[in-house]
Amino acid sequence: MQLSKLKTSLLAGAAFLLTACSGNSLDETAENAANKMKDKAYTMINYETPGQTDADHLYLEEVLGEKALAEVKAWNQSTLDRLMADPRFEPMQAEALEILNSKDKIPYVSYRGGEVHNFWQDADHVRGIWRKSTLDSYLGDNTVWATVLDFDALAKAEDKNWVYKGNDCLGPDYTKCMVSLSDGGKDAVIRREFNADTGEFVEGGFVTEESKGTTSWLDEDSLVIGVDFGEGTMTDSGYPMIAKLWKRGTPLSEAIELGRGEKTDVGYWPGVFELSDGRREIVVSRSVTFYDSETFWVPVKDGKIGSPVKFPIPQKSNLGSEFKGQVLLSLNEDWRGFKSGDLVSFSIDDFMADGEIKDVNLVFSPDEKSSLNGYGATKSKVLMSVSRDVAGTAYAFDWDGKEWTSETLDFPANGSVNIGATNDKEDVAFISTESFLTPDTLWTFNTNTMEKAEAKSLPSWFDASNMVAEQFFATSTDGTKVPYFVVRNKETKMDGTNPTLLYGYGGFEISLNPSYSATRGKLWLERGGVYVLANIRGGGEYGPKWHQAGLKTNRQRIYDDFISVAEDLIAKDITSPAHLGVEGGSNGGLLTGVMYTQRPDLFNAAIVAVPLLDMMRFHTLLAGASWMGEYGNPEDAVEGKFLRSISPYHNIAPEGDYPEVFFITSTKDDRVHPAHARKAAKRMEDQGHDFLYYENIDGGHSAAANLKETAKRLALQHVYLMQKLKDGE
Question: Which part of the chain is the Peptidase S9 prolyl oligopeptidase catalytic domain (predicted)?
Fold first, then answer.
């Protein structure tokens, strides 16, 4: 098990500077940043509608409040009446649904116990099915699948809006499983024991109440568990604060405590560390902040639980897989002569002998142009994806007992190479490749023979023969070179009239790599649209420092990067403000919210999806407290002053000349509260600004609970973009 996976549920949808920053130091204060902002073409003043305060909108934080939902339904109806009446809506929705329901999609799989397992959705399986096959059958043209669990049938039988959220099965036979089910798509789930051989839930087996958290098998009769155990057991961020060991046949109330964190922590995450010699050890990761954690080994001997032993590793690091006795550790800060961004390893047996780490070995060290995208351990090799200027390459690493060796793998260049499913008990691994204009291809790779074979590939959903994808670099306000990609028709005239969609994220060290999107190609590119992907700071495209350069009071750098890309597009006559729109979701929704409040002169459309917009109360709403490591603390004098200066909700001005914004959110989103979008929309309504709004009643943080709803949302978005950027409305 890779411990960093424990943190993935925290991400909002949810991580090197190219050159040294010439103007701003990384510890620049909010006051210095504010002084420099005075020279910008926009102002940052905190606005409230005359006669109103922020408190007047607090009723919109009542998720199912009668008054709040009445406003939501009225906004929804107005938006649907307009967009669904457009003659392009039905064709777009049909095209999107055809793609989403297609049986030609790649069935991505995990390989365990000689079988491949897959979760599949199509027109006949709206909620999806968990199914399995043999590897030989999977690699053939007509795979024979056996259904393990049908979620449509389960939802009907139990009269629940179940959304499948994954399973955890105990090796080596993978029969005993914990299945996670969400009501309507929320992050909070119930967990139920399931027998993968019989296809039935286990009567009298392990079952939890709805909660955010995690479970892992220690053995066939024991789970390590972190959930809501009752009053006082969850952190301010809404995640578990206590880890326990739960024995079969006993009530959860009698589970044995393994340790606990603090209420102010993000979370306290128990897991099981699987070693190559078959040992299963309990580990607990205490997330002090989103990026700072402490990891403990909890020894169990002869049924007795020992005192936790802390791994002597940096707080800004992620403990990963064990391979041939070496535990992999990715660094987000300098440590013991190694630098942030490096992947290193140490002996797990040495640590367990006396709690100390003796020798530390370098596995991989990226240069200033490169970044480690991800890795996975198999029985014979560690497979790794590395990007250089956002283009990916794959490597195989091995440990010879003294040092790490590596070789480059032969996969298509100038796109993305992603390490898919790996299993440390198997040599068969899956690697996928794609680019903006080349559909995904899934490869099998045998780490024993070092042979690869094409397993599956997507069909070409749109005609890319007359299209081109190019990379450019914009210069941000501090001199940093910011990469971005432009995908367009080869015959595009550089006359400033091209409808152009600029997409970005810029947070949580999440990299945006070249990717093939059938719906984007069909609904946007084939209709003459230009697509732009901005690799701004805050992401992980150049490693931890690229992300850390935009943390907290340095966040304006991220927005300056995005603005520099928009201005570069206009300078190149690819587009103009009348034809340029932006899109982003979650943290990207904050990005697009900042864009329409800071630089409304640059854009004529803004899709603000499942966004953070009230940066003075984000830490009080749902999982918001967990993100203070990214954004800062609104209650801190310096950080709070800066956050208010960028908060989109607080910078909507009565005299502002804004594009017609499209807010998209979900009532069932229990990660980013729908009140962010609601309150921003209400303030715009109070001040007389035009906007569109669509809140899906189900769907969670993805704003869609099933494929039909996803197709509808995609059609709504693209009709809006066409109206604003092509028609010129």
Answer: 519-726
